[in-house]
Amino acid sequence: MSAIEVIDLSRHYRLGSVDVPALRGVSLSIAANAFTVLSGPSGSGKSTLLNLLGGLDRPDSGHVVVAGQRLDTLDDNRLSDFRARHIGFVFQHFNLLPVLTARENVEYPLLLAGVAASERRRRAAELLDAVGLADRAANLPGQLSGGQRQRVAIARALALRPALVLADEPTANLDSHTGAAIIALMRDMQRQYQTCFVFSSHDAQLLAAADHAVLLRDGQLQAPAAVKEAA
Ligand SMILES: Nc1ncnc2c1ncn2[C@@H]1O[C@H](COP(=O)(O)OP(=O)(O)OP(=O)(O)O)[C@@H](O)[C@H]1O
Predict the structure, then answer these.
(1) Most exposed: 77, 100, 119, 156, by fewest CB within 10 Å?
(2) Residues near ligand 1 (Cβ within 6 A)
(3) How far apart are the C-alpha atoms of 13 and 204, rounded to whole Å?
(4) CA-based nearest residue to 168, from 28, 58, 5, 48
């Protein structure tokens, strides 16, 4: 079963009079309940594709279907609502709100979704426990290490139990030891929460941990290889 269908997707950027083709006619299926890595050299189109999968950007042609919903049929408000409810994001720079504690950061998407306070507290506590940070719930992001911040970001991404979690270079700002721990945690969370995880990365450790690798070069798909059978 696939969580995402990508159909003949193209995205060009204009730099003055120069046309930069970032993605050229990409079609693929991404499996549900699996760990998929988008890989390829710098400039190959990984972030562009990830942004289109997450509805953060719109293609010039082609379309994306996430959890059965064609994103191109949604206007900006409905797309933003769909994103909030069905897609969790993890960023290279963590993007936590600096004035909120770890617990409040995890609760934030639940607050926006109108979840009652007692349920927000319960779910944030469960998730912080799952990422090994139960004792750091009251800390601000500035009082946490890079690896701990990324753990909070992963807990936040899972708060609304999304169909899909997208992560753009989630280990790029971490040392290799911390990066390996974050990869193991994401793998664990993917299994525990039965979610589709998609990452962009140059990180060989992340590629080795993946069920599927999507290889891009010059905005086009290379052979999509099954790294190993999905667990
Ligand atoms: N906002 C933009 N304006 C113009 N060109 C852009 C823009 N964003 C990306 N590009 C170009 O589109 C192409 C694909 O970029 P993209 O960021 O998707 O690649 P990437 O594989 O994620 O690279 P990296 O691994 O370095 O992050 C590149 O040629 C890049 O220069």
Answers:
(1) 77
(2) 13, 15, 20, 22, 40, 42-48, 200
(3) 29
(4) 48
| Alpha carbons within 13 A on the beta-carbon side of 195 | 27
At 160, is the secondary structure helix, strand, or coil? coil
152: Cβ–Cβ under 8 A, 6 or more apart, which residues?
94, 96, 102, 105, 106, 128, 131, 133, 136, 141, 144
Structural domains present in the chain: 34-55+73-226 (3.40.50.300)
Query: Which ligand 1 atom is the nearest neighbour of the CA of 49?
Result: 18
Q: How many residues does the chain have?
A: 231
Q: How far is the CA of 194 from the centre of ligand 1 (A)?
A: 31
* Token pair listed for 75: 């206007």
Pocket mutation for ligand 1, best pick of 9, 10, 13, 60 (most atoms within 8 Å of C-beta)? 13
Residue 101 predicted with pLDDT over 80: yes
Question: Which residue minimizes the CA distance to atom 30 of ligand 1?
Answer: 43
Buried b (16+ CB within 10 A) or exposed e, 112-123: eeebeeeebbeb
CA-to-CA dists, residue 61 to 5, 8, 58, 144, 194, angstroms? 14, 7, 9, 42, 31
What ipTM was assigned to the predicted interfaces of this complex?
Answer: 0.96
Output the six-digit token pair for 76.
Answer: 């900006």
What is the tens place of the pLDDT at every residue in 123-139? 999 999 999 999 999 99
- Return the pLDDT at 206: 73
